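Q: Please design a sequence for this.
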């Protein structure tokens, strides 16, 4: 059985990673916009971003727009690959071992006793 990446597997970090993976490669999002999308407190989001950053999955960039500081968040190549591996491992866990699709309703099941 494949193992799920524990860095991504935590619900909040999975939500962060999935949101960032939906951006085009190389695109960034501002911290407040990500916070709004995920409906997370700044402290909670910061904590999870730090774990993702320590793993090399996200890059945090601080800049200024005119005189206002802005924090950008983006998924790194390593983070994108880790998310793809995570989703592949999850699919493998959800599919039966023999590779056959599981029945989705009663019509797929045999009625013979």
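A: Design:
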């Amino acid at each position: 059985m494949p193992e799920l990446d524990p860095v991504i597997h935590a619900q909040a970090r999975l939500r962060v990673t999935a949101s960032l993976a939906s951006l085009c490669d190389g695109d960034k999002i501002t911290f407040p916009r990500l916070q709004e999308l995920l409906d997370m407190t700044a402290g909670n989001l910061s904590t999870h971003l730090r774990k993702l950053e320590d793993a090399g999955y996200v890059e945090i960039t601080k800049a200024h727009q005119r005189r206002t500081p802005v924090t950008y968040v983006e998924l790194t190549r390593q983070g994108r690959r880790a998310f793809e591996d995570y989703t592949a491992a999850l699919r493998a866990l959800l599919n039966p071992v023999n590779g056959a699709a599981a029945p989705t309703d009663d019509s797929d099941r045999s009625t013979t006793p």
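Q: Thanks. Anything notable?
A: The radius of gyration is 19 Å. Residues 17 and 26 are 14 Å apart (CA to CA).
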